[in-house]
From TrEMBL:
It comes from Solanum pinnatisectum. Residues 1-46 form the signal peptide. The lineage of its organism: Eukaryota, Viridiplantae, Streptophyta, Embryophyta, Tracheophyta. InterPro entries: Amidase (IPR000120), Amidase_dom (IPR023631), AS_sf (IPR036928). This is Amidase domain-containing protein. It holds the Pfam family Amidase. It comes from the Eukaryota. Residues 602-624 are annotated as: Disordered.
């Protein structure tokens, strides 16, 4: 789930650990890192004193970059007299240490740190992906001191579509909303088996063109659809997702199917795990039709099978690691999909592909069975036809996951019952003014707004947090040199190598700076919500560090650059973000619903079959 840029950010207070333990543990990574740098460096120092050197157990292979899973760069202790390498300390901004102290650190690493590090690595880092043994340091995004979990969850009053009839064409059916499809199912105008067949056909036809589908779960889909039809025949209705097909980003585990994480390293991986979000959707009666593309290890839109495309402009890529969910929802290959975000992987592809999406409050949706980048940042959220559908999906998947300590029962009131005329909503300078004017016409008090804070390292804090936590989850992968086969060498490989040079001290300082940011944002958030650009990198970083929700809303279209003809139907989509404080997803959704109730930007269909005169469709790959 991630889109990145060079940046800085910070963190919050986590869980209680004895102070003495903290003092001891903070020394370890910094010292060991310095020590490792000393050993694997050609730096020259004038200092001539000797010290114990842990040389690589296979220096020839190390030099040639050929270390693999059976020889993952483990160092062995051999006595050698080598000069102290001061560059390692410089990389850690620790040049204040004199040479005697450097030697003392080296000895401490030898006697104390490395044995502990190796023991811990053996205990928790033998597998990649962060699926097991989560950190006990837990980020809570709630702004209220008291717990919100015990607030009663009332049943939502979903709107009822009027006089829904089954369309004559399958394409028209494919672009219906969840509630509209549900009405067809309840009225016996279509079966879940028929509906599933429509979307499977579209996935097979357009998935290869868009490079947006990893695995079609046809056997499972028909099994779940048949069960949904049988329950309806027995008069048992599970709710608005009953019998509705959908897709999952391929970092979400489903038994008996590959969960590739988009990566060459893991493309044959089958996990015997039912992700929590999959369990929730299955219990709601939804039908899984496909595992959709994630960028490799949830970074951007490049994966082992290609690069996912934007249905609104087939020559343009979708951006963001939730590339498949955005592209497939936009093109009508699924009614909705579940994606994820660590730093932009919902907001960016939703904006590029022109779909409505929700990045919910951090902790709103459990993440058990989902590949982890950063435990204090990762979120799951829906890509949908409209904001009403986002409410439907969030209501089905939210709640406390017993195996995800960061998850909780967020306060979620009925968005359909909110009186928006009682809300004060800010708008930033980069807000789409059409949204401002529409909400104002509906009685919302709209005021100019600026989210104020003095922390100037926001983007860097995010990168420190994300990269260090990601490396902890993919330590074995990097040590085995599997990063050499990564699909885009300028992405994770570089970032995670750099993360090796971030000490525990500096990671925790970043979290303390994050705490200051959260406090300042909370103090300046003196409106019920605000409107602003959904893809501005600074706002993406702030939103993910603080953990507040945003709804991405399509607001129009403009011409693409370098049009092949004046008649092309390809377009660049325009979107905006509606932001709310943590635990106020219902407020952002209520405002988005109000806007979409009088606009139709979200109802437009991308030109994947007809790009317009003099604009030929690129030759399609073979169907799945």
């Amino acid at each position: 789930m991630a889109c990145y840029a060079d940046s800085e950010k910070g963190g919050d207070v986590f869980c209680p650990i004895p102070a003495r333990s903290i003092r001891r543990s903070l020394h370890l990574p910094m010292f060991v890192l310095v020590f490792t740098l000393l050993l694997n460096s050609n730096c020259v120092s004038s200092y001539s004193s000797g010290y114990w050197d842990f040389t690589c157990s296979n220096s020839t292979d190390m030099e040639r970059g050929k270390l693999g899973p059976k020889n993952p760069g483990v160092c062995s202790g051999k006595a050698k007299h080598l000069p102290v390498c001061e560059c390692g300390f410089k990389m850690l901004d620790s040049c204040f240490l004199n040479k005697n102290k450097m030697l003392e650190i080296e000895k401490g690493a030898n006697d104390f740190n490395i044995p502990i590090i190796r023991s811990n690595r053996k205990l928790v880092a033998s597998t990649d992906g962060g699926l097991h043994n989560p950190s006990c340091l837990v980020f809570n995004s709630a702004w209220k001191a008291q717990q919100l979990e015990h607030e009663p969850n009332k049943k939502l009053n979903y709107p009822s579509p009027d006089s829904i009839q089954r369309p004559k064409s399958d394409e028209d059916t494919a672009f219906m909303s969840i509630l509209e499809l549900g009405q067809l199912l309840k009225a016996n105008l279509i079966t879940s088996m028929e509906l599933t067949g429509i979307f499977l056909k579209r996935l097979k036809r357009y998935g290869p063109v868009l490079e947006s589908v990893v695995t079609i779960t046809e056997e499972l889909a028909y099994k779940q659809a048949k069960e949904a039809d049988q329950l309806l025949a027995e008069g048992k209705y599970l709710g608005p997702l009953h019998g509705i097909p959908y897709g999952l980003k391929d970092i979400i585990a489903v038994p008996n199917y590959t969960t590739t994480w988009g990566s060459t390293s893991f493309k044959d991986q089958v996990l015997d795990i039912e992700a929590w979000v999959y369990k929730r959707l299955k219990s709601a009666g939804a039908v899984l039709v496909a595992k959709l593309v994630t960028g490799s290890l949830a970074y951007d839109d490049i994966w082992f099978g290609g690069r996912t495309r934007n249905p609104w402009n087939i020559e343009e890529y979708s951006t963001g690691s939730s590339a498949g969910p955005a592209s497939c929802t936009s093109a009508g290959l699924v009614p909705f999909a579940i994606g994820s975000e660590t730093s932009g992987s919902i907001t960016y592809p939703a904006s590029r592909c022109g779909v409505t999406a929700l990045r919910p409050t951090f902790g709103a949706v459990g993440r058990t069975g989902v590949m982890s980048i950063a435990e204090s940042l990762d979120k799951l959220g829906p890509f949908c036809r409209n904001c009403v559908d986002c409410v439907v999906v969030l209501d089905a998947i939210r709640g406390k996951d017993p195996d995800d300590a960061s998850s909780r029962d967020i306060s979620f009131r009925d968005p359909f019952s909110i009186d928006i005329t009682k809300l004060t909503v800010g708008y930033l300078e980069d807000a789409e003014m059409e949204v401002v004017h529409v909400l104002q016409s509906k009685g919302v008090n709209m005021v100019p707004f600026n989210l104020s804070y003095t922390v100037d390292s926001v983007q860097g804090i995010l990168n420190f947090t994300m990269d260090v936590e990601m490396l902890a989850h993919f330590d074995k992968w990097q040590r085995s040199n599997l990063d050499d086969e990564y699909e885009a060498q300028d992405q994770w490989p570089i970032e995670l190598r750099r993360a090796r040079a971030i000490s525990a001290v500096d990671y925790l300082q970043a979290q303390r700076a994050r705490g200051i940011l959260i406090q300042q944002v909370r103090e300046s958030f003196n409106v019920d919500a605000f409107i602003g650009n959904a893809t501005d990198w600074e706002k993406v970083c702030v939103g993910n560090l603080v953990g507040f929700p945003v709804v991405v809303v399509p607001t129009g279209f403009k011409k693409i650059s370098d049009e092949p003809s004046n008649d092309t139907r390809r377009r660049t989509t325009i979107t905006t973000g509606i932001y709310a404080p943590p635990d106020h997803d219902h407020v952002a959704l209520a405002l988005a619903i109000a806007y979409q109730s009088v606009t139709n930007h979200h109802k437009q269909r991308p030109p994947i079959d007809d790009l317009g005169p003099n604009d030929p469709i690129p030759e399609s790959p073979k169907s799945l």
